[in-house]
């Protein structure tokens, strides 16, 4: 088969061309699957938020009114919502980029690079959000910093 009937994705990966109906079918099935799975994730995240909200309401008498900080439940809820919204946005941006490439039958290096960047943003940012929301980790990092500073002073 000659190369004009192939779409080059990368140097080592190429796809044979498909007719429009097959591409539309693949896109429809992929969209349905993705919508269902993102919907399941949203429902389970909403369930966690509801459980945290109920727990916060039940334990309200334990939290002193003198505390200006948000309760652990509220911080966990904010973290869950932030991660879920960020995941859904990044997922659909990636999906739109890859779907447009499949429909247009064109994978240029710029599109592929943007897609790789978008795919890696969420797994890069998520641990940083989780670390910043956990005071124990922040305190441990501060302790490590002071120990390193102390050791460097002695040298």
UniProtKB/TrEMBL annotation:
<keyword id="KW-0589">Pheromone response</keyword>
<feature type="transmembrane region" description="Helical">
    <location>
        <begin position="79"/>
        <end position="105"/>
    </location>
</feature>
<keyword id="KW-0807">Transducer</keyword>
<protein>
    <recommendedName>
        <fullName>Vomeronasal type-1 receptor</fullName>
    </recommendedName>
</protein>
<feature type="transmembrane region" description="Helical">
    <location>
        <begin position="12"/>
        <end position="30"/>
    </location>
</feature>
<dbReference type="Pfam" id="PF03402">
    <property type="entry name" value="V1R"/>
</dbReference>
<comment type="similarity">
    <text>Belongs to the G-protein coupled receptor 1 family.</text>
</comment>
<dbReference type="GO" id="GO:0016503">
    <property type="term" value="F:pheromone receptor activity"/>
</dbReference>
<keyword id="KW-0675">Receptor</keyword>
<keyword id="KW-0812">Transmembrane</keyword>
<keyword id="KW-0472">Membrane</keyword>
<keyword id="KW-0297">G-protein coupled receptor</keyword>
<dbReference type="GO" id="GO:0019236">
    <property type="term" value="P:response to pheromone"/>
</dbReference>
<keyword id="KW-1133">Transmembrane helix</keyword>
<dbReference type="GO" id="GO:0005886">
    <property type="term" value="C:plasma membrane"/>
</dbReference>
<keyword id="KW-1003">Cell membrane</keyword>
<feature type="transmembrane region" description="Helical">
    <location>
        <begin position="36"/>
        <end position="53"/>
    </location>
</feature>
<dbReference type="InterPro" id="IPR004072">
    <property type="entry name" value="Vmron_rcpt_1"/>
</dbReference>
């Amino acid at each position: 088969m000659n190369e004009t009937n192939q779409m080059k994705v990368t140097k080592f990966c190429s796809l044979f061309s498909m007719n429009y109906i097959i591409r539309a079918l693949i896109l429809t099935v992929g969209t349905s699957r993705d919508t269902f799975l993102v919907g399941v994730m949203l429902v389970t995240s909403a369930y966690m938020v509801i459980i945290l909200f109920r727990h916060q309401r039940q334990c309200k008498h334990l939290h002193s009114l003198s505390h200006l900080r948000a309760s652990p439940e509220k911080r966990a809820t904010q973290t869950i919502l932030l991660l879920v919204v960020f995941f859904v946005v990044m997922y659909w941006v990636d999906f739109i980029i890859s779907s447009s490439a499949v429909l247009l039958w064109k994978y240029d290096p710029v599109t592929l690079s943007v897609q790789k960047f978008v795919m890696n943003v969420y797994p890069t940012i998520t641990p940083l959000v989780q670390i910043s929301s956990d005071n124990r980790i922040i305190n441990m990092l501060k302790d490590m910093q002071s120990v390193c500073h102390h050791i460097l002073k002695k040298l």
